[in-house]
Design a protein that fits this description.
Amino acid transporter transmembrane domain-containing protein; about 475 residues; 15 helices; Amino acid/polyamine transporter I; L-amino acid transmembrane transporter activity; about 0% strand; mainly alpha
Length: about 475
């Protein structure tokens, strides 16, 4: 593959690229990899994800936790502003994901966003993004543990203390997440995608045929109070936008996914399939559920159609919720694992050090995620906090910097209009990401404080049923 075909973000300027840039070609996808070293039969095959498997991993990185909060976002913003915000966030994150493919094809030694940060900003950038992405994946894993415990509570009618269900979810995610390669996790991802898809379709159909949502008054006439335009406070509005960012914020996970593809040249094909499906589902499911439920929509949305349907839907969705937790736990663990063993024979051989390091990484991430989940067990608040504080920082700003890093040198060679437009776009992505990060974090913290005050400060490490939140 030539440089010109590797980076659509460069528009027509690719032919002027710096010849020193490193380009990954299809023939490079052999046994000697710039990240994993010499891949042999004596160890795991890290480069074994096909493009269809890539679609599954991309979908499951995003499709699961995010869609459960979309109807509540529309309730806050209103139908029209909510859909517009979905499209804007979808557009920005699709471009960000696109740039990951471009950057990887040029810089074959990049495995994760920390490597990209190291190229752009040196040692400080590498360490900053290493810490940031680990914290981000831990928080995402924590959110998955919360949603899995919610499902277990719903299915069992709160058959045990929620703290116990969180331990069960964390242990299950740790065991499945300890599968060493993404190539062997694609079948798990497909199961997860299918289960969540079936569950949300069940809820969508159920709220359309039932008389009223479960949270609505049980007597008297009732009509959905959905609205075209909402009137939220700044805090609630920015929390809603942050939840949308989180719904699309699987972006940093696309770095390890492309790194383990057999043919990275097919990355864009998988990307567009994923983003098109995700956006269509978010808008369709979100609008239909919100239209029928109005302000009585539950968050997570699986609780909107009554106890019986909620139990069935959560039972179907449980594998998908667990797989979402598993994959992001795997991302965090793999980043630490490669950081510790990169450049040694233990990275790709089944040695004692290889296995103890890998199991230690997965177990440590699982413990940290459990602590986060137990400390902030309110789904909507946790989702908005993750999206605001870390989602934009890992999905917006770095990708704007990546385009500038690879194309800024063209400023002195009579750049065309497209170059200036791309500079302006990259700066816009950086600035809007920074604004959402600061404002959204503030709004999310205020929201968590208010929720904690309303519950008397007793929700952390609580045994209370968390499947009845609305």
């Amino acid at each position: 593959m030539s440089i010109q075909s590797a980076s659509p973000g460069d528009m027509s300027l690719n032919k002027k690229m710096n010849p020193k840039k490193d380009v990954m070609k299809p023939e490079d996808a052999g046994t000697n990899d710039a990240v994993f070293g010499q891949i042999t039969e004596e160890g795991p095959d890290y480069r074994n994800v096909g493009w269809i498997g890539t679609v599954a991993l991309m979908l499951k990185t995003q499709f699961g936790l995010g869609i459960l909060s979309i109807p509540d976002v529309l309730n806050t913003l209103g139908m029209v502003p909510g859909v517009l915000c979905i499209l804007v966030v979808a557009g920005i994150t699709t471009w960000s994901n696109y740039m990951i493919g471009c950057f990887k094809l040029r810089h074959r030694q990049v495995y994760g966003i920390d490597d990209a940060g190291g190229l752009m900003f040196g040692r400080v950038g590498r360490e900053f993004f290493s810490i940031g992405i680990c914290i981000y994946w831990i928080f995402c894993s924590g959110s998955g543990i919360v949603s899995t415990s919610t499902g277990l509570n719903a299915v069992s009618s709160h058959g045990a203390c929620t703290a116990i269900f969180m331990i069960v979810a964390a242990l299950a995610a740790w065991m499945i997440g300890s599968i060493r390669t993404l190539g062997k996790m694609t079948w798990v991802a497909w199961i997860g995608v299918a289960s969540v898809f079936i569950a949300v379709m069940m809820i969508t159909i159920a709220v359309g045929i039932q008389d009223r949502p479960s949270a609505a008054p049980s007597t008297g006439d009732w009509q959905s109070d959905w609205k075209l335009f909402g009137n939220p406070t700044f805090t609630k509005g920015i929390m809603a936008v942050s939840s949308l960012v989180f719904a699309y914020a699987g972006t940093p996970g696309f770095f390890p996914i492309i790194a383990e593809m057999r043919d990275p040249a097919r990355y864009n094909r998988a990307l567009f399939v994923c983003q098109g499906f995700i956006t269509a589902m978010y808008i369709t499911i979100g609008c239909v559920v919100y239209y029928y439920c109005g302000s009585f929509v539950a968050s997570p949305a699986l609780g909107s159609a009554g106890d019986l349907v909620k139990k069935v839907a959560y039972g179907v969705a449980l594998p998908g919720l667990l797989v979402s937790t598993t994959i992001v736990l795997h991302f965090a663990s793999k980043l630490l694992f490669i950081r510790l063993l990169r450049g040694t024979e233990h990275l790709n051989k089944n040695t004692f050090r290889h296995w103890t390091t890998w199991i230690g990484c997965t177990f440590g991430i699982a413990i940290a995620a459990y602590l986060i989940a137990s400390g902030i067990p309110v789904f909507s608040a946790l989702v908005s906090l993750i999206g605001a504080l870390l989602g934009t920082l890992m999905s917006f700003q770095p990708m704007g910097c990546m385009w500038l890093y690879d194309n800024w040198h063209l400023r002195g060679s009579s750049p065309r209009c497209t170059w200036y437009l791309m500079v302006a776009w990259s700066m816009f992505v950086i600035l809007i990401g920074t604004f959402i990060m600061i404002a959204g974090t503030y709004g999310s913290i205020i929201g968590i404080i208010e929720l904690n005050r309303a519950s008397g400060g007793s929700r952390a490490w609580s045994c209370a049923d968390n499947s009845n939140s609305t």
